[in-house]
Design goal:
The chain is an all-beta fold. The chain contains no helices and five strands.
Amino acid sequence: QRGQVVVARIGDEVTVKRFDRKRNKIILLPENQDFEPIEVDSRSDDFAIEGLAVGVIRDGI
């Protein structure tokens, strides 16, 4: 779903980004403005969503 934080595999690399989709392109948006978005062709065999972020656990709060 758009806006969901995902664990994505692109080739041999794995990244955690916010998911967006525009036509045949998947756009992985970083939370940190120092990094650029990653655009992926949704038909690429080298791309997969490996997982979804569902929550944050913090110790000591």
